[in-house]
Amino acid sequence: MTATLPMTAILLLAAGTYAFRLAGPLLHERLGPADRLTRPLAAATTVLLLALVATSALTENQDFAGWSRPAGVLAAAALALRRAPFPVVVLTAAATTALLRLCGIP
Amino acid sequence: MFAPEVLSFDLTNPALVFILVDMSSFWRTPGRATLRDIALVCVADALVGASFGALAVSGGLPLWVPVAMSLLVFAGGAQFAAIGVALAGGAPLAAVTTGLILNARHLPFGLAVADVLSGPRWARLLGSHLMTDETIAFTLRHEDPARRRATYWLCGTALFVVWNASVALGALAAHAIGDVNALGLDAAFPAVLLALLLPALADRPTRRTALLGALIAVAATPFLPPGAPVLLSLLALVPFLILTRTTRHHDSDDPSAKAPTGTEHRPEEHREHTGQRHDEQDDAHIRTPPEAAP
């Protein structure tokens, strides 16, 4: 296989990513303390993260990822809602998914 | 319990003194439960990191590619996406673009934790690089400024060390690691994030908005390049903004709608959602003015 990813590409991705990361604090400094923005921003962050949860649980390569992974995430979520300790939540997700795959469910 | 002293130092003394005081209470500030949860997220991410290193090398990329990427890019999702494009034979520029679209979410993240990254310039420059989904989610769980700061730095640093070490190990042991998917580790990342998000989702308007956003993102996934659907989820904020604007004028049945900040309204009970318990009394109502912007 002749897969390549030159150093220039990695540096470009790194620089762009760092720019995105630094832009938030810099913008905040320029704009000054904006308490009115705090609540919308916290909501925006939650929206982005839940969208990330949903897409990474349900999809892979722009297609449905199969039932095992979302089932594992759902089982973990149910335990988290019942205030199960964090390790139990994470292990349940992986174990449920692994078990379903062992049974032949993708 | 040390926070009031820290805060008074913060107001009167130069930055260096603040940092020293901050460091001395560093391990106590996040609370034992948060320390434990951070350690567990590190374990989960170590497994994901190892699978990334193994995937890249077994796909035919040289060892330095996953290692350099993890050090310089330090964003799991974008790394997997970029490597995926490269392994599928895509052009390097396509891999870069995909990774950048995925990482654009760090801009609003940075705005949301700007209070944590205020202070000396080196702290902002260094701290920005440590910004990840997990660290942001952990930081959002706290409202006390000292605890937010300690949580961000601790989680960010720990994840940086663990992620890079595990990627290198995974890349070295690429041939020893078998099928990572058989272990169900791909379910660990969304499960970790979801568990971290639950306290924020306790607020009804936020929950509805986030669910709508998730729906938009999943529905858009077949039609948009990777990363773009997550950004599109921000469209869900439009009704949220209109709603919070109207509830500011009319009294609603939801008291949280009037809370001045996004984190202050979280009921105490949700702190224990994932078994988290704080050893110290919460100093939620002591706040410092932002130190930046002289």
UniProtKB/TrEMBL annotation, chain A:
Membrane listed as a keyword: yes
A Pfam family per the record: AzlD
Transmembrane region(s): 43-59
Record flagged with keyword Membrane: yes
Keyword entries, A-Z: Membrane, Transmembrane, Transmembrane helix
Name of the featured protein: AzlD domain-containing protein
UniProt organism field: Actinocorallia aurantiaca
